[in-house]
Amino acid sequence: xxxxxxxxxxxxxxxxxxxxxxxxxxxxxxxxxxxxxxxxxxxxxxxxxxxxxxxxxxxxxxxxxxxxxxxxxxxxxxxxxxxxxxxxxxxxxxxxxxxxxxxxxxxxxxxxxxxxxxxxxxxxxxxxxxxxxxxxxxxxxxxxxxxxxxxxxxxxxxxxxxxxxxxxxxxxxxxxxxxxxxxxxxxxxxxxxxxxxxxxxxxxxxxxxxxxxx
Length: 214
Known about the structure:
The protein has 214 residues and is of the alpha+beta class. The protein contains two helices and nine strands; from the N terminus they run H-E-E-E-E-E-E-E-E-E-H. A five-stranded mixed sheet has the order 4-1-7-8-9, with no helix packed on it.
């Protein structure tokens, strides 16, 4: 009788175990999807930089003209080797988890997701690495430009990333100050950096070519 009892209960026990395994798999899938969604929100956050709330500050506008996402990262040294951190993501078009960020710097003529204005502490050098991509025909091009700049307290600045429309393998970052006299505002170029590998930019360009998941 004992053998018969085990035999008859076998299929029901297997079905119960199967349901437990199915529920466990569903829970695992839900956890994976939740983690994936969290990573997506972090990776696609349009601005990660934390602004200073006081002290000597400048207003700085970061701009792109690319229709693909462009990432700006900051470093503590001019070789892009120390303390990498993402500042923001820009795109001329829809950008997930993005909100307009303006401080009132003059000469604004950009898509709301193509530019961000932030306060930056002055009195030290900043090295940025602009990493963009663009579609050219059937090919997708990537281009990176490192630039080191310094800001003065109470002044307005702009860093503008652009492609060479004649050659998708060339891109440039223009750095300038926006000056207003009460009647009109002008952009005065202070420096311009291209995606050319030199002794000064070789470290940053090596960082640019590093494989990334985002």
